[in-house]
Amino acid sequence: KAGVTQTPRYLIKTRGQQVTLSCSPISGHRSVSWYQQTPGQGLQFLFEYFSETQRNKGNFPGRFSGRQFSNSRSEMNVSTLELGDSALYLCASSLGLAGATDTQYFGPGTRLTVL
Amino acid sequence: GESVGLHLPTLSVQEGDNSIINCAYSNSASDYFIWYKQESGKGPQFIIDIRSNMDKRQGQRVTVLLNKTVKHLSLQIAATQPGDSAVYFCAENQEGADGLTFGKGTHLIIQP
């Protein structure tokens, strides 16, 4: 079974631009969660989507948004990019809602650099 | 919110020795714990998990121990190999919580 895939793998943008990242979960998985990884803050939860609905949200500004499609694929969007948005953005999928019963499996990430 | 932490940012071990990576958590309501391994340029890879109703779980060459009394989690890797070199993260979750909470990570270095 194919793992979680993320596109693109690398992205360079300038301040003020917006960016859209894509994630395809493991076949059959209905939940997609997004995380931001930086050297200073580590791995931080952004949001989770299940059945096309945002179920949980981390402590990030409204510039960070996402959506999920009927085939469970998900996109996240960051508008008005700031230098501090440079990070590795990771997507994880799980069978059901990510909680105390479902393991999350991660993709390789998208490395975003904001200049 | 409360966070999960690791005791050491770097751990260096001899090839063939056993490795023990520790993690302390602060949320007493956490009921699910996971260890991930992240190699350079890759996403976190699931290693092993444990639920709060257990205190030990074994996998292939790995064992996770959970001590809920002192809120401590450890990952033991037997006969450490060069391929074990990576950053190891513990993560915790709570039913209904907002996503996994990760520790800062321990970089495991294997000495030949």
Give a topology summary:
The complex is a heterodimer of chains A (115) and B (112).
Chain A lengths: L4 E3 L2 E4 L5 E6 L6 E8 L3 E9 L2 E5 L6 E5 L5 E5 L8 E8 L10 E2 L3 E5 L1
Chain B lengths: L3 E3 L3 E5 L4 E7 L6 E7 L6 E7 L4 E3 L3 E6 L4 E6 L8 E8 L7 E2 L3 E6 L1
What is the tally of beta strands of chain B?
A: 11
Tally the helices of chain A.
Answer: 0
Structural class of chain A: mainly beta
Mean pLDDT of chain A: 93
Compressed to H and E, one letter per element, the order of chain B equals: EEEEEEEEEEE
Cα gyration radius of chain A (Å): 13 Å
What is the element string of chain A, with H for helices and E for strands?
Answer: EEEEEEEEEEE
Distance between the termini of chain B: 40 Å
Distance between the termini of chain A: 37 Å
What structural category do the secondary elements of chain B indicate?
mainly beta
Major sheet details of chain A: 7 strands, mixed
Percent strand of chain A equals over 45%
Shape of chain A: globular
Structure summary:
Chain A is mainly beta. In chain A, 0% of the residues lie in helices and 52% in strands. The mean pLDDT of chain B is 90.
Structure in words:
The complex is a heterodimer of chains A (115) and B (112). Chain A is mostly beta strands and 115 residues long. Chain A has strands at residues 5-7, 10-13, 19-24, 31-38, 42-50, 53-57, 64-68, 74-78, 87-94, 105-106, 110-114. Chain A is globular. Helices cover 0% and strands 54% of the residues of chain B. Chain B is mainly beta. Classes of the chains: A mainly beta (115), B mainly beta (112). At the A-B interface, strand 5 and strand 10 of A face strand 4, strand 5, strand 9 and strand 10 of B.
